[in-house]
Each structure stands twice: as C-alpha cells, then as structure tokens.
Design goal:
- The protein is of the alpha/beta class.
- The chain folds into 3 domains: 2-251, 4-Layer Sandwich (Purple Acid Phosphatase, chain A, domain 2); 255-326, Transcription Regulator spoIIAA (2-Layer Sandwich); 331-381, no CATH class.
- It is built from 10 helices and 16 strands.
- The protein has helices spanning 22-35, 37-44, 63-74, 99-104, 140-145, 178-186, 267-279, 298-314, 344-356, 361-377, and strands at 2-6, 49-51, 80-82, 109-111, 116-121, 124-128, 154-160, 192-196, 202-203, 210-212, 230-236, 245-251, 256-263, 286-296, 317-320, 326-329.
- It has a 6-stranded mixed β-sheet with strand order 4-3-2-1-11-12, covered by helices on one side.
- Helix 9 packs across helix 10.
- The longest helix has 17 residues, at 298-314.
C-alpha cells in the first residue's frame, strides 16, 4: 500500500517582504504544489493523500482563496484527507464548516473532523487528532492513541504539533508525547505516524515510522527551514505482519528563501558579491536575506548600494538581515579630491568628511550625504 504524506500547505499565506507581483506568484506556486500531487500520485500509484494539518493559513480567508484552493485539490485524482491544525482549527469560525467550503468541496476531499478512527477501506484506517482551537490544553495525539488495539489492522496516525523531544519548552500542554508514539508503534497499534507543524522534512526517533513531511513549498529561510519543498511517498507492506515501512521524499517546491552572510571590506568583495548574486538561478522565485559586515569607504558603499538596488529589482525579494549586518562607512583620505569643485563647496565637503569620521547621528547623516554626492558625481541615480 502506498500513499502521499504532506502537511502545512498554509494556502493563503502572505509574505510581507515580497516585491510587488511576487506575492501573487508565490500564492500561485503554493496552489501549484498542491495540484502537483495529482501527477505524483499517478506516477507512484498512490492510493490517497494525507495532509497532516494547517491546510489553510487561517480561518478568515477571502472567498477567492478558498475557491482556488479547493480547485487545486480537485486536480488531485485520489482521495485527499485534510486534518485541521493550529492555523485552521475546527473552531466556531472554521473554514471547513463554512457554506462556501461545503458547497465547493470536491468529492475527493475528506476532512478528518473528529478524533479517532476513520475507515479508508477494510483493513486500513486513519487515526486522526484534529485541532479544535489554537491552544489545546491536552496532548491530542495521546488521547486518540489510548486503548487503540493491535488487531492486525493497518493504521496511519495523522497528527499535528511539536513532539516533546524536539523542543526545549516541555511545559506546553499541547506537546505530542514521543513515548506514546513509540509505544503505539512498538505494540503494532499504529504503523506510520504522519505529522505536520515543522515545515522541513524530518524523521523523529529511530524507527523510521514517525515523520514530518514539511511544507511542499518553502515558507522560511534555509537556515531555519533546511529541507522544505518535499512530499513523502510512504510504502507499507500489508502482506507482512510487521508492516515494514519505506519512505521516499520527492521535491515539488520551486521557490527558495536563502540566507547569505558576506564580508565586504573593499571593492573586490563587492564584485564577488555581485558575481554570486548574478549567478543565482530563478531569481523571480528566490528571496535573499543578506547579512553584510565590514568597513567601506564612501565610494565603495555607494557601489554596494547600486549593486543591491539592481538585484532588489531582479529577485522576488532582497531584504537586509539586520541581526547579521554591520557595515561601517569611513571616508578615505583624498576620496573627494577628484570632484572638480572649488570655493565654498570644497569647504562643505571637508566638513562632511570630518563629521563622517566622528560618531553619532550627525556622522550617519554626513556619510549618507557623501554617498549621495559620490553617486551623483559618478552619474549614478540618486
């Protein structure tokens, strides 16, 4: 038996740092990742798809987002089982109980809207732990595992949330207890645990039966989310009493959120940064978070600003990584001797240079003024 495990679609997600038309393209890419499950299911002969929580970004989506999301699910040619998670819980405002969702839900979409066993077919069950609020006061997974029999039925647990062994804060009541998962697997009551919440693919424990699939399209930078954009193809051998499991990851995401750190202390460093950014493929689907450190002359800082301005127009977003950025700007001796000016202008430039070499707010203003002057002198855009 083979199925697809995915999670954290978060359809309707927005990212405030995306440039202009990049946000609609990113939203379309998230829906396209859902639609891509159909061809993948056909290719691997998957019986169904399980979505382990956070199908939608939240419960207050615009009607257009709901309709487009359901249309993407319609394109998947096998049953799709949706688990409500912390972003889209089954509360009073749930998208799953809205009139629009009920009217437009495709026949192949099934909401796992009650805790416990859901029959897929004889001998195969899903065990669901849906969220009913954003802040559960108990371990929802442990509750559905309690007293679950090991009776030869193949079972897949579908849960959402953080496993306690993966987080430092052990006091959250909603944490999934790993001991309960291991016990259920060890006694044969559950044969695979499909989890959502982490947006990066991750195997939990040593059994190879407990997995986070991650989000099928990237949601965060690669230093935070190292392995996104994946869907898991899960095989369970129902002919073997031990129900051995094999998991294969397939990449379907197309976007990248990249964190870069670079030293910039001279014009050669800036040229190297320019080359590295230029060589990056798929700029329209790439977000760069850039951390720069170093000391530059005013002329080199103006060159750097011009470089970053260009790539900010080419990438989906190029944003400063504030915590990793520390650039000092200091005018070099003779740096403004070639401006071809005289009289009072020379004296004004000398005053700006002196102020720029000091500290405080006036120094920052002076450096900015000198950078603008350099760019204008070189024919650059203001």
């Amino acid at each position: 038996m083979r199925f697809l495990h995915t999670a954290d679609w978060q359809l309707g997600m927005t990212r405030h740092f995306l440039n202009g038309e990049a946000q609609p393209r990113y939203s379309a890419a998230r829906r396209a990742a859902v639609a891509a499950l159909g061809p993948l299911a056909t290719e691997v002969d998957a019986e169904f798809v399980v979505v382990a929580g956070d199908v939608f970004e939240h419960n207050q989506l615009a009607p257009r987002d709901v309709s487009q999301s359901l249309e993407a699910m319609r394109a998947v040619n096998v049953p799709v089982y949706l688990l409500p998670g912390n972003h889209d819980p089954l509360d009073a405002s749930s998208v799953y109980t809205s009139a629009l969702f009920a009217a437009e839900r495709p026949d192949n979409v099934v909401v796992l809207d009650r805790p416990g066993i859901h029959e897929v077919r004889p001998g195969l069950q899903l065990v669901a732990a849906p969220w009913y609020s954003k802040a559960p006061t108990t371990d929802l997974v442990a509750e559905v595992l309690e007293a679950l029999p090991a009776d030869g039925t193949t079972r897949i647990l579908v849960g959402h949330g953080a496993v306690d062994i993966l987080v430092p804060d052990k006091d959250r009541p909603s944490l999934i207890g790993f001991a309960a998962l291991e016990s259920a697997v060890a006694r044969g009551a559950v044969h695979y645990v499909a989890l959502g919440d982490k947006h990066s693919r991750l195997s939990v424990g040593a059994t190879g039966r407990v997995w986070y699939s991650g989000s099928p399209e990237v949601t965060n930078y690669d230093d935070i989310e190292p392995d996104p954009g994946q869907v898991l193809v899960v095989d369970i051998d129902e002919s073997d009493p031990q129900r051995p499991v094999a998991v294969d990851a397939r990449r379907i995401g197309n976007w990248r959120f990249v964190s870069l750190r670079r030293p910039v202390d001279n014009s050669r460093d800036i040229a190297d940064l320019d080359i590295n950014l230029d060589l990056m493929p798929d700029k329209e689907r790439t977000v760069i978070r850039l951390g720069l450190t170093g000391t530059l002359t005013v002329t080199d800082k103006a060159t750097l600003d011009g470089c970053l301005d260009r790539y900010a127009r080419l990438f989906a977003a190029l944003v400063p990584w504030d915590r990793q950025t520390d650039i000092a700007v200091m005018p070099a001796d003779g740096e403004f001797d070639d401006l071809g000016i005289g009289g009072f202008a020379v004296a004004a430039v000398d005053e700006l240079v002196a102020a720029a070499r000091s500290t405080g707010e006036e120094a920052e203003d002076a450096r900015g003024a000198l950078a603008l002057l350099r760019r204008l002198a070189e024919g650059g855009a203001a």
